[in-house]
Amino acid sequence: MITPFDHLEHRRACKQKQLERSTRIANLPRQYHSPISQYEREILNKPIEELVQDVHKTVIKPIDILRSYGKVAIKAHAKTNCLTEVMINPGAEKWIENINLQGPLAGIPVSLKDSISVGGFDVSVGYSRNVGKPCPTDGTMVRILKDAGRKFHPRKDRHVD
């Protein structure tokens, strides 16, 4: 049986996460809120293998890839409410200093299911009791992906094309 206190606690946790997510989206750099450009469409239409090769050859900057995919994620969220965490921060340009630009996923943004442990973020798995309890460190999968040169952007709770 669900007690009224449990229900109120659940509603509070949901509102907290919704406010956190909407604040992060609102605070993204203006580039994420502008229409998708022709250059960004070209990036989005390239196969991942080609994007990685272009990053290796410095033909494409990883930040351009992040912005392109980030815009699509933000637009998809506006239509479907699919994001649980927005892992793009206003200082996203600085992440390039900490990634492996020669790795097999060099500069490629990755969306993760909300059950994957990312240090500093909640792993709620849709369960409101886990809200406000961020993982202290990255899980194994996240460490492997970081070593491969990836950048995380929004965490999602469902697949959206």
Describe the structure.
- The strands form two sheets. A two-stranded antiparallel ribbon has the order 1-4. It has a two-stranded parallel sheet with strand order 2-3.
- The protein is mostly helical and 161 residues long.
- 28% of the residues are buried.
- The protein contains five helices and four strands.
- Beginning-to-end CA distance, first to last residue: 38 Å
Helicity range: 40-55%
- What percentage of amino acids are in beta strands? 5-15%
Principal-axis shape equals globular
Strand order of the largest sheet: 1-4
Sequence of secondary-structure elements = HHHHEEHEE
Structural class: mainly alpha
Output the number of helix runs: 5
What is the radius of gyration?
Answer: 17 Å
Please give the number of β-strands.
4
Average pLDDT, rounded to a whole number, is: 84
Low-confidence stretches: none
Sheet with most strands: 2 strands, antiparallel
Kindly list the characteristics that best describe this protein.
161 residues, mainly alpha
Kindly summarize this structure in a few lines.
This protein is 42% helix and 6% strand.
Write the layout of secondary structure elements.
Elements: H1 4-26, H2 38-45, H3 48-56, H4 62-80, E1 83-85, E2 109-110, H5 140-147, E3 151-152, E4 155-156
Parallel strand pairs: 2-3
Antiparallel strand pairs: 1-4
Helix pairs in contact: 2-4
